[in-house]
Write a structure and sequence with these properties.
By secondary structure, this protein is α/β, with parallel strands linked by helices. The protein has two domains: about 170 residues, D-Maltodextrin-Binding Protein, domain 2, CATH 3.40.190.150; about 120 residues, D-Maltodextrin-Binding Protein, domain 2 (3-Layer(aba) Sandwich), CATH 3.40.190. About 45% of the residues lie in helices and about 20% in strands. The strands form two sheets. The chain has a six-stranded mixed beta sheet with strand order 2-1-3-10-4-11, with helices on both faces. It has a five-stranded mixed beta sheet with strand order 7-6-8-5-9.
Length: about 325
């Protein structure tokens, strides 16, 4: 009887908590330094605040290849007031490539929504005499180790994509990891590194100014914003695409009613015309906005895919 009473009391408390949620500001952790991922979070956070009636405050917690901020959220109270805007680098790559990771991506988080797909692009300094993927392949084969590519760090989606390409083609391009996309792209512009793999928000302005050029989108199809830029599979049909989505999650154990309240708020925010225009137009991303039940099998399948690929490519945890 005592156990039953305790269980009923806990259920009642959770129900009351869910009904009054949120009653204070919500912390939205971005486990990266200010830059492209941070910008995406700041696009929808104000509209999510309007939906919830409480401020959603974006907080950057970079470090250890996104593991630091992700770990912080995983160990936070499961009350819905500490959330994580994460990329696939945090949930799919870091567990296999960052030694500091102790969280379990499949067990330590309450899934709220897979928010958007954010494609990566291969781009080069405009002075580099390479204008297509085939020219890149030919140059790399003639000059092994002479080309270098910048990414936001070991285990990032950009790193995984180029390593997968190198493995398929048997070419040697040197990886130069950075602590974030901003310093990486600056070195490509300066000519210290010839190329990079990253999301559009990391280089859009420099592309418009002519300092950079695109040679491919690392996807199965061309992006509607760049119809003249081929997908990488047009040249490399057996390219193994790396998942590049963004998601909203929280610590494991958030009450179901709170999770669904948050899901409703983020889906509504993402589909507001002004938010959609910025995410699809300015960030060149594709809005998904699914439910936790739809997100769960995607996370599991992509996690297993990346785990296999990391092992195949021989990427070592740092």
């Amino acid at each position: 009887m005592i156990c039953l009473a305790a269980a009923l009391a806990a259920t009642a408390a959770a129900t009351v908590s869910a009904q009054s949620f949120p009653s204070k500001p919500i912390r939205l952790v971005v486990p990266f330094p200010p830059g492209p991922i941070d910008v995406l979070a700041r696009i929808y956070a104000p509209k999510m605040s309007e939906e919830l009636g409480q401020a959603v405050i974006v907080e950057n917690r970079p470090g250890a290849g996104s593991a630091l901020g992700t770990e912080f959220v995983a160990r936070s109270a499961p009350d819905g007031y500490t959330l994580l805007h994460c990329s696939t680098s945090a949930l799919l790559m870091a567990p296999f490539t960052v030694k500091a990771v102790t969280y379990n991506a499949l067990k330590d988080f309450s899934l709220i929504s897979q928010m958007m797909e954010t494609p990566y692009y291969l781009l080069l300094n405009s002075a580099v005499p390479i204008n297509s993927v085939q020219e890149l392949i030919d140059f790399a084969k003639r000059n092994p180790g002479k080309l270098s590519y910048a990414t936001s760090g070991v285990g990032s989606a950009g790193h995984m994509e180029v390593e997968a390409l190198k493995s398929i083609l048997g070419i040697d391009i040197v990886h130069v990891p950075y602590k974030g996309m901003a310093p990486a792209i600056q070195d490509v512009i300066a000519g210290r590194v010839e190329m990079a793999s990253m999301v559009y928000l990391g280089f859009g302005a420099m592309l418009a100014s002519g300092k950079l050029k695109l040679i491919a989108v690392t996807d199965f199809t061309r992006h509607k914003s760049f119809p003249a830029v081929p997908s990488i599979t047009e040249t490399v049909p057996n390219f193994r695409r790396i998942p590049t989505w963004q998601a909203l999650v929280g610590p494991a154990g958030i009450p179901r009613a709170v999770v669904m309240r948050l899901n409703s708020a983020i889906v509504k925010a993402l589909n507001m015309p002004e938010v959609r225009a910025k995410i699809e137009g300015e960030a060149k991303s594709v809005i998904i906005g699914n439910t936790p039940e739809e997100f769960a099998p995607v996370l599991k399948a992509d996690y297993e895919h990346v785990g296999r690929l990391v092992k195949e490519l021989g990427i070592k945890a740092e």
